[in-house]
Amino acid sequence: MLLTLAGGALFFPGLFALCTWALRRSQPGWSRTDCVMISTRLVSSVHAVLATGSGIVIIRSCNDVITGS
Asked: Structurally, how many domains does the chain consist of?
């Protein structure tokens, strides 16, 4: 469990930094604020998709979600 936490703690900030860097390089006319805003939204979208996917896996693997473990 700790390894998963460490992986997430590295993955999401790394994805944000990579997106910000790539946007700054590919769109030099954009301000830093624009690049940060788009990077934030992209990372948030990735996080939402992963959370939804894990919720679907949990729901599909339990017969009774409320009392199942």
From this structure: 1
